[in-house]
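Database export, one record per block. Field names are fixed; values are copied verbatim from the stored entry.
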Amino acid sequence: MRAPIGNFDNAVPAPGCLDRLTEPVAAAVRAWQGPVPAEQILYVDTDPAIADTAVFVGHHGSELLDRSANCVIVAGKRGETTTLAACVVRSATKVDVNGVVRKHLGSRKVRFADMDTAVGDSGMEYGGITPIGLPAAWPVLVDAAVVDTEWVLVGSGRRRGKLILPGKAFAQLPGAVVLEGLGVGAG
């Protein structure tokens, strides 16, 4: 099947290729519920050598810059308590860590989680982290612009491969909180 966005000739419904996903992502796809069916989560195989956004968009279609999202893991700290959370914003924007995220988490200080924590605690590969299949205790903060996008390209849990799914599906993820202004400025 042809993907609904980008230059991908072979999009496969994720439930039919669970072996290409990390275990946490595959488990989330198996357990998927809600108004957007799991079959609308599409997997496209991609070259990990071109996984970084600018190179990827140049190769697979410039329209993907406005139709792709990045998932970054942040660590909010208040006193001795650290809260990990995922932030999902359009690739052309940056996460408003010191404004929207800090306020929502009720943290005094928020920083991007270090790579070992993000990878180790998520069970995913650096550069491929996706909001699908993250630990249940983590809030998943989603920019409203992502939810309002018809189809969104996001990581698959690995650097090889991406997922394409309706933007509204991000609002049905466990722990999802849709926030206005989470993504700001040019990325």
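Remark 1: The chain has one domain: 11-184.
Remark 2: The first helix runs from residue 23 to 30.
End of record.
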